[in-house]
């Protein structure tokens, strides 16, 4: 064990004994032991800086100070939780060995990992993207119709590629979608999407159809069902042409669909139904996106921001 001069000797000796224990008796891999050493180095340096000399000097306040420090350093919740695990194992070892009477981590819970906010296109970026396909060419018209449906109905890419003509209930202004777990739902489809899909079905799909094409709506140039990877590739092409620098996937248009509905005042339950989420908690991520948008507007335009 190296001595860096910043950890009290008694704490450093206890750390050495703990690392020997997890390496030899618990049989942990060397890279895991090394990760514990790094995590404990930070913790024991903090204890030493705060005047601790012995293994019994640590308090819950000291552990909380570590968690605050890690948060200030910008560590992810998962990394903070791993640090707390190392510190907790260390203190439980000290208790089991009779080196300390109490465990200051006993009533502390690791931070809950936060959900990363999804990437969302703003309305102007959506318009730029939709304008990219050359709809005067057969595949360009298909691609425009495809993008309109992805955004206009908020479909997953697997739901889009699985669409059949019998699912398009344009007389009722809805589309029937087979989602995860073969669950079906009915989603309103915008008039813009309906116009472009109708043009594609009348002008292009008959040219693409081959024996075995079946009832699938979106076909590739060989008359087969357009694959998920095919959708990814054509979307990436149009994102680049539109000069959009965000990391955009087919799911980004679904995120944008939900966010723009909520920004316009849609009810969360209604958005949940349209997205096909079983748990409304899954849909609530978009309320956070909406709040981020509002905060950005406030920062940009409010004189006291």
Describe what this molecule looks like in 3D.
With 305 residues, this protein is mostly helical. It is 57% helix and 4% strand. The protein has 14 helices and 3 strands. It has helices at 9-25, 30-49, 60-72, 77-96, 123-130, 138-153, 157-161, 191-203, 205-208, 228-241, 250-263, 268-275, 280-283, 285-301, and strands spanning 168-169, 174-178, 184-188. A 3-stranded antiparallel beta sheet has the order 1-2-3. A hairpin with a 5-residue loop joins strand 2 (174-178) and strand 3. The mean pLDDT is 84.
Give a short summary of the structure:
The chain has helices spanning 9-25, 30-49, 60-72, 77-96, 123-130, 138-153, 157-161, 191-203, 205-208, 228-241, 250-263, 268-275, 280-283, 285-301; strands spanning 168-169, 174-178, 184-188. The protein is mainly alpha-helical.
